[in-house]
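Hi everyone,

Forwarding the result from last night's run.
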Amino acid sequence: MFYSLAIDPIVFSIGSLPVHWYGLILGLGALTGLFLCIQEGKRFNIPQEFFMDMLLLGLPSAIIGARLYFVAFKWEDYKDNLLDIFKVWNGGIAIYGALIGAIICGIIYFRYKGYPFWRIVDICAPGLLAGQMIGRWGNFINQEAYGGVVEESFLRDKLHLPDFIVNQMYIGDAFHHPTFLYESLWSLLGILLLMVLRRQKFVRAGEIFMSYFIWYSIGRFFIEALRTDSLAFDGSSGVAAFINGLWSPMKWMGFEQGYLDPAYGNIRISQLLALLIIVVAIALIIVRRVSGQPKAHYQDPIISTKPAAADAVVPESAVNTPQKPSQPVQPVEDPSKDKETKE
């Protein structure tokens, strides 16, 4: 059977500079996340410039963190080709690394602006999922982050996918699981869940952000094992067996794990990290609740500790217009005294 050629990863070129779909899709994801943050920020009277500056600082921090995370676990592939480290348009970034970079940047930026960390990251949580949901389509274009081999009938008849996805999943000499699509849809469901959850009065500060980590990590744990390009390491056979046991419900639904090269290890890093994040996030929610630490609810007002005057813009006319010297005040004579003098 004839299959159409894969989608060209280059949209167009400006002179000798190619513009990649991957970069455009990541940009679209970032702007979508920004839009959601700005819309929710209006409820708390947070200026949109705050979120725009946050994106300008956070996006490069996230990309750097994502790339460093990926390169660190793939160092053997890069140590002899250091320039390839900077070629992020070819793919090879890790979402967990991006989150680490963005969180570090956020801690510094929010403190500088005087906003409480937990309150702002709660607002940003659906935007993060939106960025990830859209960003996964960059993996689709690059034909990366895909799963194990499947039959064409599985994609067409069971998943009912359109031709452009089915054809793009024909990689090498076989069809593969569209794991990018699974994660994208999981993120979409997560956005809807968080938007409903943040309207509930019982939700405390920080719990939307923790819920984001829990939701995303649950999906990542099960989807990661379908992939064939997972970052991995050699670990305890008992830990590996425990992880595989937790994943076994996927087998009952007819899924098989993707091939994991023994040279990389026997434990997928993202699966183990997902489990740790789930446990830590749940523990944080419980400990903070028991200790009474999160006194603020999600719906409470958000107030910056920095004086509002510091952010005020002085009109240019007030700065450039010279002030006229004040005229001396002439005393007003009392008419009754003048009358008395004349008499």
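The longest helix spans residues 48-73.

Cheers,
N.
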